[in-house]
Amino acid sequence: MFAKVIVDIAHSEVDRVFEYVVPEGMRVDIGFRVHVPFGRGGILREGYVIALSQTPEYSGDNIKSIHGVLSDIAALTPEQIKLAGIMRRYYHTTLAAALRLMFPAEMRGGRVGDKLSHELVFSLSDAQYENAIQTMTTAKGQPKAPKQMEVLKTLKAYGKLKAETLDELVPGSASARDALIKKGLIEKRTVETLRNPRKSADLQADYNLTEDQRNAADTILSKTGKYLLHGVTGSGKTEVYIHIVRDFLKRGKSAIVLVPEISLTPQLVEMFERRIGQEIALYHSTLTAGERYDEWKRMATGRAKVVIGARSAVFAPLKDVGVIIIDEEHESSYKSDMHPKYTAHEVARMRANIEGSTLVLASATPSVESYIKAKNGIYTLVKMPNRLFGLKLPDVEIVDMRDEVVKGNKTLFSAALHEAISEALSERKQVMLFINRRGYSTFVMCRGCGYVEYCDSCEVTMTYHSSRGKLMCHYCGRTRPLKDICPECGKPYLKHYGVGTQQVEEQTKVHFPGARVLRMDLDTTRGKNAHQAIYEQFKSGAADILIGTQMIAKGLDFERVSLVGVVAADNSLYIPDYRSPEKTFELLEQVAGRAGRKDPGKVIVQTYSPEHYAIEYARKHDFEGFFTEEMGVRRAALLPPYSVFFRFVFAGKNEDAVKQACLDFAQGFKNEFSDVFDKLLLFDFGEAPVKKIQGQTRWQVLIKVLNDAELAQFRKRLYIYTDTKRYKNCAYGMEINPLSMI
Ligand code: ADP
Ligand code: ZN
Q1: Tell me, what DSSP letter sits at residue 143?
Q2: Whole-number Cα distances in Å, 326 to 218, 252, 374, 708
Q3: Phi, then psi, of 454 in degrees rounded to 5
Q4: DSSP string covering 209-263, please?
Q5: Mutate to test the pocket of ligand 1, among 210, 239, 325, 330 (most ligand atoms within 8 A of CB)
Q6: 3-class state of residue 108 by DSSP
Q7: Among 49, 301, 381, 511, which one is least packed by beta carbons within 10 Å?
């Protein structure tokens, strides 16, 4: 027997199949992780068996043998191996790098494994026991070995005990225990214990689905396909997921449910656990390595059939995947920030195609990219337009902050917001204050008139770089000096802008001294269960005001919140990203979704740009309207989905090597693609907007092409071109439609 093995080195030079002999008597199957001798010195490396055959494909006499098997269960399913093959080309990565995504990183190098413990068992008959006691007792009736006697009696009383428990009951009993084992009086067994990361919940009966919910579930279950579920906040989407998952389980299938970040969706997890119970695995980054391994193993061995997890759960080792659900599909956390920079949607689509699964993307505010696919019939659109129990979406009031400046109000709170907070507090209701802050980008805005500095050609804001003292467009590299007089109104109010959560917290405490204030942002949620703790504190009514970043915008369901305030909508409106109107609409709609989930609620949005279409449509809760206008803007500026950005970032400690690699790549590209070069919408190369990160110099090549019938061909050529490019002392990677252009 011969095995085709991918050696676990993510380097393009060894990105191919190597063949090994399977030694007589070794049990090896597809998906097994193995040790193989590799390279000239025959050093042992880890590898993955991706195929087996009776005859070798590559003749050659010096074909080596597999050295050993790393575990007796397959680490990869055949479907996962196929998926990795597709990802390799799509994301310009190596097969090894793609395969590594499919199981916990710590399994490589054996840094995590089964948690084994020992159990001691009493299995003597009464007669045997009497006999043992006699031989262990002196003629005078004293025990010969008191510790051994005590251990034996204790174990008889309990039947069996874990080694640690026995140690607690009879301290210092280790050697007595071993002596008894030697004599054959007690037995030692090895058992596998699971590091179960959650408590078991009481199972709860299902709700009766509403008509909207039933229609949605029935449509999605009627035939295998790809669906976009557009359901407003509070329409009860989670119930629909549960219904669908349950149906697939009944058919003997498994299910993958992706959520943006598990700590932010405690309610969804709770709801699933209450209904479906022990078959659920949780899979995300805040698990310990051991917990993650155990969850992985429960899935790989078929003990768990449903996984709820962050984007990496799309690689779950489940077999027969019937359905993949992506909740809050618009969230940017579905895009990986490490190479290969995959997007969970794309991978889910590839996996659904391989496994014949149904795909469900769901959101109250679908991404422009997904919605256009629904419009074009690539996804089937399913709508849930109504909130449960006849509740209305809350009223949204827009406050023009330019008026506040004129009135001399320099605080973060407009008169309207101040009054609404006071009122909510006096009625003993809860308030959520929301600030969106992303990255360390700052844009420049006039506080007098709301004028914002944009790039002349890119439909994105210019970013202020204090190190260069200049404004810069991250999309085309153009720079401009920073002025302080506004070209629009002539007043000296042109400043870089950005409001943070701490600032809001400080001012809230000053303005509302009696209120109990909680803050939820990156700083206050570093600990493992920090989210959960803040969430529960607020839910229990231990605080009046919750201040937070986008973290608090989604998924949470607090009945007593009557007012949501968006302190600075401009924070998200002018981030240097063509998606900023979309992100703003999304955020406003999602935060509004937190208000009035029981009684009617109210939303106040503060902004210097009340006339911006994203804000205007969010005020009316008009997704269709927003989508139509946004598509107009994207079409006019030829932005995605009408085009695609490919960004290559070159990075390394050696400045010359990085620069040289980038220049070589760019020059080679120009030669190689001379026939289509003038059809490119953008070709730019040079230093990256942020020149250095963690001591690494960064250069970039940015390419923008039209999303048309020739795109697939271009992609193929690009893959072939980059596949042969290798640089010393410089790493580089590709990203498609990057989330951040720093
Ligand atoms: P969405 O995700 O669409 O914003 P959720 O799924 O969070 O909405 O549902 C909101 C609340 O309504 C949840 O607490 C849920 O348990 C409850 N709920 C959902 N469907 C029903 C139903 N058919 N009957 C009663 N309560 C329901
Ligand atoms: Zn530009």
Answers
A1: B
A2: 18, 21, 15, 27
A3: -110, 155
A4: PPHHHHHHHHHHHHSS-EEEEEE-TTS-HHHHHHHHHHHHHHTT-EEEEE-S-GG
A5: 239
A6: helix
A7: 301
- What is the CATH T-level fold of the domain 391-438+501-635, as seen in this structure? Rossmann fold (3.40.50)
pLDDT of residue 233: 87
DSSP bridge partners of 644: 705
List the shell of residues around ion ligand 2, using CB closer than 5 Å.
455, 458, 473, 475-476, 478
Residue ranges for the chain with pLDDT beneath 70: 59-60, 196-201, 437-441, 466-467, 497-499, 528, 553-557, 596-599
pLDDT of residue 91: 92
Other Cβ atoms within 10 Å of 78 Cβ, number = 14
Could you tell me which of 564, 538, 534, 260 has the C-alpha nearest to residue 434? 564
Judge residue 656's burial from the number of C-beta atoms within 10 Å of its C-beta, 0-12 exposed, 13-18 middle, 19 or more buried.
exposed
For residue 513, cis peptide bond before it (omega within 30 degrees of 0): no
**Distance from the CA of 478 to the center of ligand 2, in angstroms?**
6
Which ligand is nearest to the Cα of residue 274, counting in written order?
1
Q: Where are the beta strands (DSSP E) in 30-179?
A: 33-38, 43-53, 68-69, 115-121, 160-162
d(CA 374, CA 382): 9
Q: What is the dihedral of CA 534, 540, 541, 543, to 10 degrees?
A: -20
Cα(91) to centroid(ligand 2), Å: 25
For 211-389, which CATH superfamily applies?
P-loop containing nucleotide triphosphate hydrolases (3.40.50.300)
Calculate ∠ Cα 209-212-217, nearest 5°. Answer: 70
Q: Look up residue 635 and give its amino acid.
A: R
Do the domains spanning 2-109 and 211-389 agree at the CATH topology level? no
Residue nearest atom 20 of ligand 1, based on CA coordinates: 236
Least distant ligand from the CA of 204:
1
User: Residue 328 has what pLDDT?
Assistant: 93
Please work out whether the CB of residue 501 comes within 6 Å of at least one atom of ligand 1.
no
Question: Which atom of ligand 1 has the smallest separation from the CA of 593?
Answer: 4
- Give pLDDT, residue 322: 98
Q: What are the phi and psi torsion angles at 385 (to 5°)? A: -80, -10
Q: Report pLDDT for 440.
A: 45
Q: How far apart are CA 82 and CA 95, in angstroms?
A: 10
Closest ligand to residue 231's CA? 1
Which ligand sits nearest to residue 217's alpha carbon? 1
Regarding beta strands 395-400 and 321-326, do their DSSP bridges make them parallel or antiparallel, or are they unpaired?
Answer: unpaired
- Taking the centre of ligand 1 as the mean of its atom positions, its distance from the CA of residue 295, in whole angstroms, is 28
E strands present in 140-210: 160-162, 187-193
Q: Is 590 close to ligand 1, i.e. is its CB under 6 Å away?
A: no
> Measured from the CA of 231, which atom of ligand 1 is nearest?
3
How far out from the chain centre does Cα 415 lie? 39
Calpha distance 380→363 (Å, rounded): 14
Look up tokens 């803007």; give the residue: 633
3-state secondary structure of 284: coil
The most distant pair of C-alpha atoms in the chain lies apart, rounded to whole Å, by 109
Which atom from ligand 1 is nearest to the alpha carbon of 384? Answer: 3
Asked if residue 458 lies in contact with residue 578, where contact means CB atoms within 8 angstroms, the answer is yes
The predicted structure's pLDDT at residue 439? 43
Which CATH class name applies to 643-736?
Answer: alpha beta
The pLDDT value recorded for residue 593 is 82
Please provide the distance, in angstroms rounded to a whole number, between the alpha carbons at the two ends of the chain: 51
Three-state DSSP at 367 gives coil
The DSSP line for 525-566 is G-STTHHHHHHHHHHTTS-SEEEESGGGGSS---TTEEEEEE
Domain ranges of the chain: 2-109, 116-192, 211-389, 391-438+501-635, 442-497, 643-736
Q: Tell me which CATH code domain 2-109 carries.
A: 3.40.1440.60
Task: Output the pTM of the full model.
Answer: 0.85
**C-alpha to C-alpha distance for 188 and 163, rounded to whole angstroms:** 9
Q: Are 16 and 31 in contact (CB under 8 A)?
A: no
Residues 6+ apart with CB under 8 A from 234: 387, 388, 391, 593, 597
